Amino acid sequence: MLHSFQSFSLGASRLPRAMRLTALAAGLLALLPSCSKDDEPTTPTVTAPDRLSVPQAALHPEGIQWDEANKRFIVSSRTKGFIGTVKDDSTFAQLADEQRLISTIGVNLDAGRNRVLVAVSDNGVNPGRTSAATLRKRAALAIFNNTTGALLNYVDLGGLPAAATYPNHFANDIAVDKDGNAYVTDSNAPIIYKVDPQGAASVFLTSPQFDAGAAFGLNGIVYHPDGYLIVAKANTGTLFKVPIATPGSFTTVTNAAGLSLTGADGLLLTDPQTLLLVSGSQSTVYRLNSTDAWANVRSTGTFATGAVSPTTITKRGNDAYVLYPYTATSPRFKIVKVSF
């Protein structure tokens, strides 16, 4: 190789200086190792899993929220009471707990205010914390710091004077409006509660139309950016549109297709015209659409879950994930991406 390079150099001495330099540079480059885009460091693409199987025995979660900032799901527990988190590798960790958390039901992540809001009830499935004083009477809202898990507030709802006339209570689901006001459904009383950002509680709306007798009544609730709530009644599958400014003028959403939505549980508004509704008793997630500000609704797709007792649903990027709690004694629970 040395001999060839010297010969090349002698021959090149007869060329003009600029051409000699160009040829010399080309020869040196040929001796260097090659480099391509394939050798450059790349950032691996993180793909969200289609399903997570979480080995937490007898947790029986009811509510779920995706926490984008911390890349984790937040879940409740009917049988343990505490609030937990789940990473994409299915690892589980406890986020928050408090002795008054008998059964935690609906969860709402108010990310802008770094709060986790949790509906608290007692239907007797947590033997370590239930009591005669709270059984079927507990309805409360617990609020935690999402970073530290510290309790920020605990608000009694069922004990409000306007709610005390009803013997039974079950705080179920939560929606939060743009101003930080929380709205909580009561499945055993015909009530929607309101808790302002300072923790002051009131009965936001009550109506005989919400009464379900001994059955489960009001359940899922979501806030629409146009200034109203959409609320589901489980025993009939009825949807209500409730204006924030004038709740007494609420209307029933007309089911244009005559579709049965009985067993309605968790609700997720994926865009102003699209609502996902989980029906636990039908083992189905319905995709509903409205083009007239939720005066009427029609079905545009379904997702069958199988016999897994699906409850609530959350948005993660452009995807939605539904919670499979199975039963109160199951060795695990699952979080599954919905596809239509």
UniProtKB/TrEMBL annotation:
Residues annotated as signal peptide: 1-25
Entry-linked Gene3D superfamilies: TolB, C-terminal domain
Keywords associated with the record: Signal
Keyword Iron-sulfur: no
Domain of life: Bacteria
InterPro entries, sorted: 6-blade_b-propeller_TolB-like, Sensory_adhesion_molecule
Name under which the protein is recorded: SMP-30/Gluconolactonase/LRE-like region domain-containing protein
